[in-house]
Write a structure and sequence with these properties.
The chain is mostly beta strands. The chain is built from 3 helices and 27 strands. The strands form 3 sheets. A 13-stranded parallel β-sheet has the order 1-3-5-7-9-11-13-15-17-19-21-23-26, with no helix packed on it. A 7-stranded parallel β-sheet has the order 2-4-6-8-10-12-14, with no helix packed on it. Strands 16, 18, 20, 22, 24, 25 and 27 form a 7-stranded parallel β-sheet that branches. The longest helix is centred in the first third of the chain and has 4 residues. 43% of the residues are buried.
Length: 327
């Protein structure tokens, strides 16, 4: 366990008094390693090798001889983290928009969090199933985010306005090799336009969208246009009232099949007030989750009840339901 300075991961507060050092170079080989690093200048945490790695690192990017101490870092890079083949957790934060972060986690099932990175992020997660948390930071225009092989999730959020800018095609241009986008939906943000980033996401093979991940369920309305054919939309439900939920498959879809899976986070009923399905011939709706009801009941999802509407265009011919879904 290496501890340089004093921080506490996602709970870190720049305003608190921490024991920063000027610059840091941390290296290790095989085995399970922990590194907690706080620097006034720049840091390189190189923990390649077998074994799980756990890294928390913050940098102010000030000039304290970091160019001489860490000559291999790019001039604008305040933090570089390298890990190996284990299942790694990396959390990084910078204090200025001029301070970039480079992270390469290579193999293993990794989770990287860049919510507190103020500069650009250059992240590659390599093989296996990985999660990259951009959170309320969102995705910046010059970010380069590569999920690598296997199934990878890009997890955004709406705590602040820029959290959902991952859905903007101008920011999505630097995002590659992610098979799913997740949205933390902490509060009602009105209607979220989710148009597959003007087909950039479809071209990248994005076939799964997760709403309400890590936030206790869905809160906002969603207008999801130009979704790819046979797309899967996973929605965490926890007893909310959703004003609008619209889904339209992209033009030219072959099978015209849409899959919506509701994931029950607790025993409750979630109402979708007005639902519109377009461009779809087959709609598959499922409800999965734990048995939380005292009488053995599942969570319940309700469409089109009490003067609310469930509409579809003339293409829809089949609706397949499973689980406790009322229609």
């Amino acid at each position: 366990y290496v501890r340089i300075g004093d921080i506490d991961g996602g709970s870190f507060d720049w305003g608190e008094d921490h024991d920063f050092v000027d610059n840091a170079l941390v290296t290790a080989g095989n085995g399970e390693d922990y590194a907690e690093v706080a620097v006034e200048g720049r840091a390189h945490v190189d923990l390649q090798g077998d074994g799980n790695k756990y890294v928390d690192v913050i940098a102010k990017g000030w000039s304290f001889g970091g160019d001489d101490f860490l000559p291999d870092l790019a001039p604008d890079t305040a933090i570089r983290v390298d890990t190996g083949t284990g299942n790694d957790w990396v959390w990084a934060a910078t204090d200025s928009s001029d301070d970039n972060v480079e992270i390469d986690t290579r193999g293993g099932d990794d989770r990287v969090t860049i919510t507190r990175v103020e500069g650009d992020a250059f992240v590659k997660t390599g093989g296996n199933d990985d999660v990259l948390v951009t959170g309320y930071r969102g995705v910046m225009e010059d970010d380069v985010l590569n999920g690598g092989k296997s199934w990878d999730l890009l997890l955004a959020g709406n705590r602040e306005e820029n959290g959902l800018n991952v859905l903007d095609d101008s920011n999505f241009a630097g995002v590659t090799n992610f098979e799913a986008i997740g949205v933390r939906d902490f509060f009602d943000a009105g209607t979220v336009d989710y148009n597959a980033a003007d087909n950039v996401a479809n071209d990248a093979g994005m076939l799964q969208y997760i709403i309400g991940e890590d936030s206790g369920g869905i809160s906002s309305s969603y207008d999801m246009e130009q979704m790819a054919d046979n797309v899967m939309i996973d929605i965490h439900v926890s007893g909310n009232f959703i004003d609008e939920f619209n889904v339209e498959l992209e033009d030219g879809a072959d099978d015209k099949e849409l899959n919506i899976n509701f994931i029950a986070d607790n025993w409750s009923t979630t109402f979708f007030q007005d639902v519109l399905i377009e461009g779809t011939e087959t709609l598959n709706i499922t409800l999965t989750g734990e048995d939380n009801g005292e009488d053995g009941s599942w969570d319940t999802v309700v469409f089109g009840e009490d003067n609310n509407t469930f509409e579809a265009d003339d293409l829809l011919t089949d609706i397949n339901l499973s689980g406790d879904v009322n229609y």
